[in-house]
Design brief:
This protein is an alpha/beta fold and about 100 residues long. The chain has a single domain, classed as Leucine-rich repeat, LRR (right-handed beta-alpha superhelix). Helices cover about 15% and strands about 10% of the residues. The chain is built from two helices and four strands, in the order αβββαβ. Strands 1-2-3-4 form a four-stranded parallel beta sheet, with no helix packed on it. β3, α2 and β4 form a beta-alpha-beta unit.
């Protein structure tokens, strides 16, 4: 696959359900209408997740992404990093 256009929560869920994101290491959701990260909770191979300029407020769904190394949160509604404290302790870099 060369291009995947994700703009909404429904697009994200459909991509995950369709197996389109299997083995993905980087996921760019910047500037989309995505607010719910539940569909990507099982993408344990993710290393970089870009969420800038989204409506995301809850990071609990990604607390199990043990391979995550970089998380980009600029201009989101996230105010609580507690759900990913374990990832941060293991070296996750959070950029706001």
């Amino acid at each position: 696959m060369s291009t995947l256009n994700i703009q909404t929560n429904a697009d994200l869920k459909a991509a995950v359900d369709g197996g389109m994101l299997t083995g993905l290491e980087r996921l760019n959701l910047r500037n989309t209408g995505v607010t719910d990260l539940t569909p990507i909770a099982g993408l344990t191979g993710l290393e970089r997740l870009y969420l800038c300029n989204t409506g995301v407020t809850d990071l609990a769904p990604i607390a199990g992404l043990i391979g995550l190394k970089y998380l980009y949160l600029c201009n989101t509604g996230v105010t609580d990093l507690a759900p990913i404290a374990g990832l941060i302790e293991n070296g996750l870099v959070v950029l706001e």
